[in-house]
Write a structure and sequence with these properties.
mainly alpha, elongated, about 400 residues, 16 helices, 4-stranded mixed beta sheet
């Protein structure tokens, strides 16, 4: 039986591990899509405020209108117990009472007692409301000083809440590639972890079985030469690696639709394809160095977490310290994530073809270097076995 077929037959034993990794990854990716927010606009937080107006003047009504411009106005709450219950259950953020005589005291320049309120002490919502109220009362006082009577000053201050500034985010297509959604960026950022996990956890044990003494002796007794055996095992590793990559890429195409077919997504795919080559070589390397499956699993778990944490897969690179970043430049995952950021315009990263090419070439360089080391180890092992 050809070695290639034997390779695939042994690999079937590990298909559950492969599909488990992929299923978990796809489930997390669906979560990324759900929470992917493409809208980069800004909307201020609106509080829920219960207002009781005991003054019933034009000035007090102007204050209520000003508050409603920034917040949701709730019906008055009667009774201290009811007020405390509503605050406890966060049905309202603040309970405000405009005291009787508010307009007269404000016109006279008095500051208390204009308003009373119930609030959660030291809360963010209370601090936000205080800032809004301070802005309004300062505006009213300024108009009063200029000579306006209280009702006119209150209306003028109310007008300061009406203008809305439209903000539009512009992107320079020549410098920024940012047309890929956050969900797809997250999918491909976590892709190294799943590629290493799937390929090494499934392929390396298969190769270890083929390289065991009993099976190796049996294959050596066959008419298949050693070079042909090595070529067929390598072919099996490459075919399975490409199959896993094609599956994950196809899932991305289904999940992200039009985002996947933008021009810069081709750069994303090229970047991930080159990293897949590194994962394939890493699989070969561990197959040659690990003594058994138990040790292999320990090495894979440790190496995968190390590469992903230090390379910026799990923790975005902008949050890593300079010391960690200096070390992570010696890891292929760092350059994979850098290439992904350049290709997608993540976090305002400007597109630079030279930097992107460097990221891809460095990943390829890691793969070639590791492949050469793997060949040396394999040749030394063959010589040792032949001498024995």
């Amino acid at each position: 039986m050809p070695v290639f077929k034997v390779f695939l037959r042994i690999l079937k034993k590990y298909r559950i591990v492969m599909f488990m990794y992929i299923a978990i990854f796809v489930s997390l990716s669906i979560g990324l899509i759900k929470f992917d927010k493409q809208d980069t606009g800004f909307e201020a937080e609106r509080l829920t405020i219960s207002v009781s107006d005991l003054d019933q003047t034009a000035a007090s009504k102007a204050l209520i209108a000003y508050i409603s411009a920034y917040n949701e106005i709730a019906a008055p709450i009667i009774g201290k117990d009811a007020v405390l219950d509503q605050l406890y259950f966060r049905s309202v953020d603040l309970v405000l009472t405009i005291e009787e005589g508010y307009a007269e005291r404000l016109a006279a320049g008095e500051t208390e007692p204009l308003l009373t309120d119930y609030r959660v002490p030291d809360s963010y919502s209370a601090a936000l409301f205080d800032a809004q109220l301070e802005r309004y009362l300062t505006a009213v006082s300024g108009y009063l000083v200029s000579g306006l009577e209280i009702n006119a000053a209150a209306q003028k201050a109310l007008e300061t809440a009406k203008p809305q500034i439209a903000v539009e985010t512009l992107q320079d297509e020549k410098t920024t590639a940012g047309t890929v959604g956050n969900g797809m960026i997250g999918y491909f950022r976590y892709l190294p972890y799943i590629l290493i996990g799937v390929l090494v956890s499934a392929i390396s044990p298969t190769v270890l079985v083929l390289m065991s003494k009993e099976i190796r002796n049996r294959m050596n007794c066959s008419a298949i030469s050693t070079s042909s055996q090595t070529a067929q095992i390598s072919l099996g590793i490459i075919v399975v690696s490409l199959g896993v990559y094609a599956l994950l890429t196809g899932i991305a195409a289904l999940l992200f639709g039009s985002d996947f077919w933008t021009w810069n997504s081709w750069y994303v795919n090229l970047n991930s394809l080159v990293f897949m080559l590194f994962c394939t070589v890493l699989t070969m390397f561990l197959s040659q160095t690990a003594p058994n499956t138990l040790v292999l699993n320990m090495i894979v778990t440790t190496a995968n977490l190390l590469l992903c944490f230090l390379g910026g897969v799990f923790v975005p690179q902008e949050f890593l310290s300079e010391t960690v970043l200096r070390f992570s430049r010696f890891l292929p995952t760092y350059w994979y994530v850098r290439g992904l950021y350049l290709a997608t315009g993540y976090n305002g990263e400007p597109w630079n073809a030279t930097d992107y090419a460097m990221c891809v070439c460095l990943q390829l360089g890691f793969a070639i270097a590791l492949f050469c080391i793997t060949l040396l180890i394999a040749r030394n092992k063959r010589q040792t076995q032949s001498n024995a």
